[in-house]
Amino acid sequence: MSWKNRGVESASKGVVSRKWTLLLCIGCFCVGMLFSDRMSILPEAKSISRTRVDDEMQKLVSGCDPKINGEHEAKDIYGEVTRTHDAIQTLDKTISNLEMELAAARAAQESILNGSPVDDNLRLSESIKRRKYLMVVGINTAFSDKRKKLEDEKGIIMRFVIGHSATSGGILDKAVEAEDQKHGDFLRLEHVEGYLELSAKTKTYFATAVALWDADFYVKVDDDVHVNIATLGATLATHRDKSRVYIGCMKSGPVLAQKGVRYHEPEHWKFGEDGNKYFRHATGQLYAVSKDLATYISINQHVLHRYANEDVSLGSWFIGLDVEHIDDRRLCCGTPPDCEWKAQAGNVCVASFDWSCSGICKSVERMKEVHRRCGEGENALWSAEF
Q: Its family (predicted)?
C-alpha cells in the first residue's frame, strides 16, 4: 500500500471517532438531565404526600370536640383509679387476714409451749372462718348471764382482763378461776400482775384478744371508769371504714424525771431536756385501736419497747406508723355534774371518771350513782344498731 492510501484511511477513521465521541457526549448529557429532573421530583412528591397526611390528621383532630374528648379521658382515668383503689383495698384486707391468722397461730403455739390450755375459740379459728364482732372490750362488767346475748345480738365481747399472781396457783388465782367458772367473763392472760407491768399486760391483752376474736376494734378500759356501752359502740362504728385508727382522749403531759413521784419516767432522758413533754397519746382510762393496729402489736410484741407508763408505751408503738389519731373528748367526761349536764343536753358521754383519781374516786361506793345520773338508759344498748 502506498503512503497516500494509508494517510487517507487514518484521516477517515479519525473523523468517525470524533463523530461517535460527540454523539456519546450528547447522549450522556441527556441521560444526566433526565436523571436530575427525576431526583428533584421525588422529594417533592414525598413532601406533598406527608403534607396531605398531616392535613388529614389535622382535620380529624380539629373535627373532634375537645370537651367530649376531655370527658372521656377523665372517665377513663377515674375508672382506672377506682379499679386500682379497689384492688389495693382487697389486697389490704387479704394481708390483714393473713396477719391475723398468723397472730392466732403464734398465740396457740405460745399457749402450748407454756403448758396453758388452748381456748376453744382459738381452736375453731384454725378450721373455720370466725364471726366478725364490732369490738372486744377488756372491762369490769356486770352483765353476767346477759353476756352471751350481748355477743350474739350486738357483736360485743366483754371480758375481765386479768393475769396471774406472783405465786401461780395461789389463793387469788383459785378465786379468779372459781369466778370464771361461774360467769365465764374472764380473759386470762399469761402475765404476772403488777403496777409496773401494765405496759406488758397491754401488749399481752391485744395479742390474746386479736388471736381469739375477729373484731373491728379492741378496747381497753380501766375497771374504775363508767362506760356507756351503746354510745361507745356507736362512736367506734363511725370509724369502721378506717384501717389504722387510734381513738381516745389525746394528751401530752410532762415527762417526770424526779424519782419517787407518781408517773416517774426512768427513761426521761430519751425525751430530751428536762421539762419536755411526751408525744401525743391517748389517756389510759379508755382507748380503742382498730384490728390492724392490734394485729401489729401482736406480731411485734417481742420488740416493742415498754416505758414506765402504759398509755405512753402504747402511743410510742404507733410513732412512725401511718396511724390516724382521733381525739374524742366524750371518752373522758367528768363525773356528775359534768356528764349529767351533757346527757341532759343530748350529748351522752362515752366514759366518765375523775382526773384527780385517774378513775372514779371511791368507785365501789359511787359507780351506781354515776350510772344513774350519767347512764345512757336501760334500753339504749339493746335497741342500738351498729
A: Belongs to the glycosyltransferase 31 family.
